[in-house]
Amino acid sequence: MRITLERLNNATHFRARTPDDVSIEIDGSADVGGMNLGIRPMQMLLAALGGCSGIDVVMVLQKKRQKIDTFVIDVDGDRTSVEDHSVWTKINVTFTLTGAIEPDKARHAIDLSLGKYCSVAKTLEAFAVITYTLVVNDAVIADHATAVV
C-alpha cells in the first residue's frame, strides 16, 4: 500500500491520499512551524487505534446480533520523551455504547479487538500499555481494563 503526501503550503501542512483517493490533512503545531490546519501525526496514531478497534467492535457486535444506537470512542494517551522523539507509553480507549447491547458481549468484542484483531493496537503495544473503559447505556462495565483473549 502506498500513501502519497503533498505539501500544501510553505510550512508543515500536508495532504495524505490513499490509493482509493481518500484524503486527510496533516499539520504540525505552531511551535514546530505549523498552522494547526490538520491532524498531527501522533494524534493520528490515536485516531487510527480508535478507528481500527471501533470497526472490529461493530463487526463483532453485529455478528452477535446486538443493536448499537450510538457509539463514541475516546482515546487518551500519555507520551514519554526518548532521545529526540517521544512515544506513546499509556493509552486508554473509552468505548461508550447505547442500545440493546449485552455488556458481556461488548466486553468480549473489545477484548477480541484490542487483544487479537486490531493491527494498530498490536503495533502500538510494542511501546504502550493499552487499556480500555467500557460504558454501556450509562453503566461503567470496565474501567482501565486490559484486553483478555
Largest sheet properties: 4 strands, mixed
The portion of residues assigned to helices is 25-40%
CATH superfamily of the largest domain: K homology (KH) domain
Average predicted local confidence, pLDDT:
96
The CATH architecture assignment of the largest domain turns out to be 2-Layer Sandwich
Classify the beta-strand content into a percent band: 35-45%
Count, helices:
3
Shape: globular
Query: How many E-type strands?
Result: 7
Order of helices and strands: EEEHEEHHEE
In the sheet with the most strands, the strands line up as: 4-5-6-7
User: What is the SS-derived class?
Assistant: alpha+beta
CATH class of the largest domain: Alpha Beta
**CATH fold field value of the largest domain:** GMP Synthetase, Chain A, domain 3
Termini Cα gap: 29 Å
Condensed summary:
The protein is 30% helix and 40% strand. It is α+β, with helices and mostly antiparallel strands and 149 residues long.
Can you tell me about this structure?
This protein is an alpha+beta fold and 149 residues long. It has 2 domains: 1-39; 41-145, GMP Synthetase, Chain A, domain 3. It is built from 3 helices and 7 strands. The protein has helices spanning 41-63, 103-117, 119-124, and strands at residues 4-7, 14-17, 23-26, 67-82, 85-100, 129-136, 139-145. Helix 1 (41-63) crosses helix 2 (103-117).
